[in-house]
Design goal:
The structure is a single chain. This protein is of the alpha/beta class. Helix content is 25%, strand content 29%. The strands form three sheets. Strands 3-2-1-4-6-8 form a six-stranded mixed β-sheet. Strands 5-7-9 form a three-stranded parallel β-sheet. It has a two-stranded antiparallel sheet with strand order 10-11. A hairpin with a 5-residue loop joins strand 10 and strand 11. It is globular and about 45 Å long. It starts with 7 loop residues before the first strand and ends with a helix. The relative contact order is 0.17.
Length: 153
Amino acid sequence: KTLEASRLCAVSIERSGSALLEVVRECMPGIAVGKILIQRDESAPEKTPTLYYSKLPPNVDENKYVLLCDPMLATGGSAIMALDVLAVKYNIPPQRCIIFANVICAPEGLKALAKTYPKVKVVTACVDSHLNDSKFIVPGLGDYGDRFFNTEG
């Protein structure tokens, strides 16, 4: 099944989600774009996420499919919070076609996501071994945003 760009909205979880969003926009230049800024509290033992900002195009809840972009899925906290924002603030029903696109997952994050949002499809390139005690993906690749934007954490 092929979807027209007018029926899609790509939403990036900032900041590293911008890396995937760039590729999506190259493939579908007319796609609507939304942004959700969520940051993990690296000092907290469970790496709890905090929502800072969200903005989606008008009428995103009217018959649009959502492609949620974030390259890493570790604990699942940021992805689940982003899905909560889509469901509550923007009235996108959880049972609607939402695809979570990423590069690397941890099994713990996949389990948490499936428990909270079982109908969300996940497209990933790799499922790594596990999370370490600091809730980082093992072996992982470090901070994706820092690598992509050539910055230090």
